[in-house]
Amino acid sequence: MRQTLDTLVVVALLALGSTAASAATLVSSNPAPLTAEAARNWRPDERVRVGIDAMRESIVVSASLRPQGATDAVRLAQLGRAMEARVAGMIACCTQDDVGSRHLYALLVEMADGIALMQRAAHPDARRMGLLKVVQALNLYGTMFTHPGWRALDETLEVSAQ
User: What are the residues whose beta carbons fall under 8 Å from the beta carbon of 50, sequence distance 6 or more?
Assistant: First the structure.
């Protein structure tokens, strides 16, 4: 019994070692490292800039018209629906295989996750957290990319009903 256990341990260690070695080979063969510095020099095309500006503006308008009480979940779902098509259109713009496009794609996926929460979360606080996720992704976009006239959103939005 002890010999079988020792054999299993050796086999597991060999498998783990070969997996780590192949993973190291994959990582080291990446010709273009994904760095934030490289993305900062990337200027998104006009469609992306217009879409980002429109999302920012719709959040600002929605926050200023914030109704009180139980309609908050409905308002966030409507805002999410309005932003969903914009994010999908901007994701379609990420066709190049460069560092900037990969960073933009990652941020847009974060926004899409937040939008999904805004639309479908069962609890109103979860919907508000979805909005916060979108706001944070938009603000990160502004620090990573060249976007003339970009202004960060206030992350201290009211995210709780309490």
Answer: none
